[in-house]
């Protein structure tokens, strides 16, 4: 797909404008928590923009390119939902009040967009100069899929053991006190990082690790840099509002990891099959992605979470104990 440099400039300009609009309109009062209605409205805005862009691609470049975009968008969006579980753990560890989390996520998403852009540029250059790198990406995705499936409900996250966090705490003198939504404050004439800044550093580093899974996954769908970039960006842009909409209900998606593992494994196998000239049509990839994510989402909502099962067992044991006495 041949795209003029002006298309990239125009798209980046659009993204910057939307980010400024989001910062200006989404939760304008830093002392209040985002409401479900406000968050839901912005989720609808971002998803609608992503759909409109995909439809525009259909009329501009045809069904094949549009299908690649939608497949990539679905994978990246789903991986973003999975990453929210980690964000919750990070915010809980640092005891960040809910009303201040939106500012950390805004700057986190801004950093994520920059890092993803760098990784996409590097990945595109590697694939164009070393075609065999695509098979390494494929093998890595299969490894990631197996690891994700074994983790089941998710891997244990221990921020206190992270070397990057320890470095940040040593490098930036910090305070445990909050100064509204500020990242830095001054105490006794000394400039100190607030808990929000330390949390932001940790989230940025975590997102870099997330990109190691998501970028190879999108290259398994398409190697067109414009489609890789736009599908990634649209998936990330709506992450902040989606987080506040689903924050209290994310544990209900307890089977999502299995769906993502299946999708990543499928994309990895698809990439390796190219070594023997077996091409998986994009429509089949789209069907597999929608099917796997749809089934695991429905099953998640219809089955009990591990916490609910444990609570039910406890209630049953208490009831038996009361009956026996």
Write structural notes for this entry.
The protein has 325 residues and is mainly α. The chain has one domain (10-26, 34-156, 194-304). The chain has twelve helices and two strands. Strand 1 and strand 2 (190-193) form a beta hairpin. Helix 4 runs parallel beside helix 7 (195-219) and helix 5 (133-151) runs antiparallel to helix 10 (256-273). It is globular, with a radius of gyration of 21 Å. It starts with a helix and ends with a helix.
What is the gist of this entry?
It is built from twelve helices and two strands. By secondary structure, it is an all-alpha fold.
Mean pLDDT across residues:
82
Helical element count? Answer: 12
How many structurally independent domains? 1
Which stretches of 5+ consecutive residues score pLDDT under 50?
none
Beta strands, count: 2
Helix/strand order, N-terminal first: HHHHHHEEHHHHHH
Q: Cα distance, first to last residue?
A: 75 Å
Question: How much of the polypeptide forms β-strand, as a percent range?
Answer: under 5%
* Helical coverage, percent range: over 70%
Question: Rounded to an integer, what's the Rg over CA atoms?
Answer: 21 Å
Task: Tell me, briefly, the overall form.
Answer: globular
Walk across the major sheet and give the strand order.
Answer: 1-2
Structural class comes to mainly alpha
Main β-sheet: number of strands, strand sense, barrel status? Answer: 2 strands, antiparallel
